[in-house]
Amino acid sequence: MTQKTLLIGQTLAFTGDPFHDGIETARHDARGGILIENGMITATGTADDLRRAHPEAQITDYGNSLILPGFIDAHAHYPQTAMIASWGKRLIDWLNRYTFPEEMKFGDPVYASAIAKTYFDLTLANGTTTTTSFTTIHPASVDAYFAEAKSRGLRAIAGKTCMDRNAPADLTDTAQSAYDDSKALVGKWHGQDRLIYAITPRFSPTSTREQLAALGALWAEHPDCLMQTHLSEQTEEIAWVRDLFPEARDYLDTYEAAGLIGPGALFGHAIHLTDRERARLKESGASLVHCPTSNTFIGSGLFDMDGLMAEGQTIGLATDTGGGSSFSMLRTMASAYEVAQLRGRALHPAELLWLATTGSARALRLDTKIGHLSPGYEADLVVLDLASTPAIAQRAARADTLWEAVFPTIMMGDDRAIRDVRIMGQSMTK
Ligand SMILES: [Zn+2]
User: Fold this and answer.
1) Distance set, CA 304 to CA 133, 246, 337, 340, 381 (Å)
2) CA–CA separation, 400 and 284 (whole Å)
């Protein structure tokens, strides 16, 4: 007989998308339960009903804490862990001054493994159960990330970051070596346990047409891989792309011409988009990834969440560490709230929590596996203490609804709010 585990606490599940179906789509149980068997969620409901139906289950009672699907970070750079919060630059200078020197260290497998370990320690401590990361040009950086994720049983996504121009010589590959290295890494890691490979050109300014085309060809050979890159983050970057690709209709066209668009394509940032780009992104089924702490930290601009959602784009949420300034998806939700406020719209806590879980899962084409509290889903969970600091506790004590109770944790919470995190049902905090 398989061991059954019953988790009890407040639960919040989404039966639809609160941006389009309204916040009524969120189902809150003040005393809910999640039954787990063999790492999978097998039943949800009220705690009383589940306790009666499964008297043999081992119970963990989280009291008033809130059980959610684990947070899903749809865009990050684990090699930038050690240089997060570097002062005073915009995108291109920031890459040259801080990022590239750090990324050069990842040819050393020992250094790469040490940073990968630190990175997953930090993301798990912040309740993030799935990460989607860029690496460096070094295959060893991909090996270090996937080996560490695998040892912890994580569902994780990454790919070798390819660059064959406009970067230091020690950080460039070629069209051919990018293709060859990436192909070998797909064979080595994609589909191993819970790992997924993402074909990863850093962005058009650092890839030639030939490299983009080679990676497009590789994706066509492995369509169940994801493809991740950056799009229209800063205006200076867009002008640079216009100079480098005079034949292109716009920034997106540089990817489109290489076959790097379609379902499973993840475009980080996507702030300054033309009407054609928006229409083409929607039509192609690609995903946009909003990185709000990065966009304010590097001074990139204000993502048009409402407009893009209204036209039916697929959108995930992400930290973009270390351009982003936090490993916490709580802080990232708060930043998404602030960015939307600056555009005149207050995102509802249901919308923020949905983006950080189900929304990101959908953007990653993983919404049949993670991001839902429903039977048949992998039991990757986060348990939030809604009174984790004196400031939050005194505010939450005055709340009349779940939304009033959880919003102070979204706005002011950090890793202290993470009471537990579970990977395939197993607690990572014990
Ligand atoms: Zn990025």
Assistant:
1) 23, 27, 12, 8, 29
2) 43
Spacing, Cα 324 to ligand 1 middle (Å):
8
pLDDT digits (tens, 9 = 90+) for 151-164: 999 999 999 999 99
Q: What is the DSSP code (8-state) at residue 159?
A: E
Spacing of C-alpha 102 from chain mean position: 22
User: Residues 163-186: pLDDT tens digits?
Assistant: 999 999 999 999 999 999 999 999
Ligand 1 centroid, distance to 134 Cα (angstroms):
7
pLDDT tens figures, 104-134: 999 999 999 999 999 999 999 999 999 999 9
- The radius of gyration computed from the CA coordinates of the chain, to the nearest angstrom, equals 21
CA angle 56, 58, 63 (to 5 degrees): 125
Q: Kindly give the distance from the C-alpha atom of residue 133 to the centroid of ligand 1, in angstroms, as a whole number.
A: 8
CA distances for 196 relative to 154, 321, 371, angstroms: 11, 20, 16
Give distance in angstroms: CA of 397 to centre of ligand 1: 38
Element (H, E) at 322: none
- Residue 23's pLDDT band, with cuts at 50, 70 and 90, is very high
Compute the distance between CA of residue 70 and CA of residue 51 in angstroms, rounded to an integer.
Answer: 23
Full-model pTM: 0.98
How far, in Å, from the CA of 302 to the mean position of ligand 1? 16
User: Angle CA(161)–CA(164)–CA(168) in degrees, nearest 5?
Assistant: 90
List CB-based neighbours of ion ligand 1 within 5 Å: 268, 320
Q: How far is the CA of 205 from the centre of ligand 1 (A)?
A: 14
| Angle CA 382–386–389, to nearest 5 | 115
| Helix, strand, or coil (residue 323) | coil
Residue 197: strand pairing partners? 158
- Between the CA of 231 and the centroid of ligand 1 the distance, in Å, is 9
CA of 323 to the centre of ligand 1 (A): 7
